[in-house]
Amino acid sequence: MRATATVSLSLMALLSACQTSTTNTPVANEPAPPIAKRVAHELVAHGHTRVDNYYWLRDREDPEVIAYLEAENAYTQAATAHTATLRADLLAELTGRVVPDDSTAPVRSRDYFYYTRWVEGGEHPLYCRKHQSLEADEQIILNANALAKDHAYFDTGGLAFSENQQLMAYATDTVGRRFYTIYVQDLRTGALLADVIPNVSGDLEWANDDATLFYTKQDPETLRTHQLFRHTLGEDPAQDVLVYEEQDETFELGLWKTKSRAYLVLDSYSTLSNEARVLSAAAPQAEPRIIQSRERGLEYDVDHMGEHFFIRTNLEAKNFRLMKTPVNATTKQSWQEVVPHREGVLLEGFELFRDHLVLEQRSRGLTQLSIRRWDGGEAHELDFGEPAYLAYATGNDVLDTQTLRYSYSSMTTPDAEYDYDMNTRDKTLVKQLEVRGAFEPEDYVTERLDAPARDGVGVPISLVYRHDTPLDGSSALLVYAYGSYGASMDAEFSASVLSLLDRGFVYAIAHVRGGEELGRDWYEDGKLLRKQNTFTDFIDATEHLIDQGYGDRSKVFAEGGSAGGLLIGAVVNMRPDLYAGAIAAVPFVDVVTTMLDDSIPLTTSEYDEWGNPNEKQYYDYMLAYSPYDNVVAQDYPALLVTTGLHDSQVQYWEPAKWVAKLRATKTGDDVVLLRTDMSSGHGGKSGRLERYEEIAFDYAFLLDLAG
């Protein structure tokens, strides 16, 4: 596609600052794309030399780098100016479906019901609670709109309440780089205490003495969460006690409290292994105690009830099983099996109740909730009655109850939360997402297909479209996937995607290898030296959808973000002819260079996901698919690439360098656009309604290409 907007004088000035003497001559009335200067930088590994002409873009403090990013933004605006009316219509449509003063379902935690709600025009929530009864007066405990008032970006991290529920600790980030500041508020008076703790990760938990707060901190360069500190109210945070420091650079720390509230769990985790420590919430000065020492390949997570820790583990169980162990004998030799390993059933989580055990599991790619009594009896599963859906337990903070709270949605059913009586098997709707406008679920159809991959396996695909959309090969088709870290992309409801469906699109989620939809093997078969399966699965799924009449070959689009952006980058290198356009959001595209640089956030902790390129077999394999390293002189589909200047997970320079190299190398006239949010990080804009501006921009890009 070729854009037809004119270029302003200010844009031309920015472009000229970034162009070399080899700039392309623009066609009359068309904006000229920025052409980044080339500065050869040699990267040598294993006797192999790569030349990176855009390595200089890594310095975010360099005014020339900022000028280049701003020039790209200006070019993107000019090149898409003709879609301004469509974007405005889409934005009004997207925000028009949102209930402006909506609230979440209240969750019971000890003496209070907690919930969040929004006010009309507010970008951030109010955090609220009611004492003992939903009929009680509301107490607004945190007004995020007021806190965000003077900041372009604002995010609330962990919220934690003291045991007496009269003190609240919360963390805020005003940059988007995941460095938070902790504040402590007295909920009886509303006053902030003098305790302010900067540069933390956002994970925080109270001990049970109402005076001790635990929190984690990151390495300032790599952003690896590696330290646990203990703070006593009223004392200088500079004197806080370092409780534990993770020395292994491939491990990070996570912190949470058990459902029993008796223990804090400090989890040291990597891609393939972890090691949990527990701290008594009643004895905050005590040393953490290891549950089971780390072993390569051994994964487990921990909760507590009564005299036992309950442990979900892959010990001799690739799809995980559930164990228990006495609190005073926690090594694996003492573990006793509660739920055995099952072929074809992936145990993803569990919920403990006094009389019941709830298993969150996955079979045939679909989530299940399985309920059993501790005193015996046959387990039963909830029946959801749709071919593709998402169901999970949520908001279950109370052990002594027979009620399970769960959430359910499908691609045609808006999110709903239910209270389920595990004894009588009756369910009560607590809250369902209201979709304003003309939405009627029966106007849409959802399907589940299997696409044959080139090696013979079946790749699941979840689909949704309007009932009147023709399936004769004439419709526009958008295919989305992620395919990394074992993260499953479920068939859940999206009110936003209705704007594409109502304009004739078919929307598909390809559940490619690298996710965990079909169990642990599905994940293992899409990582490390089998990563290429992720990309070929996506291509084969797309081809199958076209062959089955779900899309017109000239109107097929692809979308993915972060590690899913890597997928997009690889796929458009491998099969650029298959897609008319693609959206790569915060894409991880410079794989080899990033994974060779252990100063970059997430590098060392992800060797077990991608491989360590300091070892030649991984270097060679990663080099064969790394999108940045495989840009060649060929026609590419139209591309919209997005990033955030303060992204801590995929550094902004990866997509920036990729776009620069594509411009200098590719043939053909299809547009390549880079859109950098100069005030946000990996998650994009932080405001509730602001985010729809990004979605409207993306959808306008696709609809314009589809014609």
Automatic annotation (TrEMBL):
Keywords: Hydrolase, Protease, Serine protease. One of its GO terms (molecular function) is serine-type endopeptidase activity. The keyword Hydrolase applies. The keyword Transferase does not apply. Residues 34-432 form the Peptidase S9A N-terminal domain. It holds the Pfam family Peptidase_S9_N. Gene3D superfamilies: alpha/beta hydrolase, Prolyl oligopeptidase, N-terminal domain. Residues 493-705 form the Peptidase S9 prolyl oligopeptidase catalytic domain. One of its GO terms (biological process) is proteolysis. Belongs to the peptidase S9A family. This is Protease II.
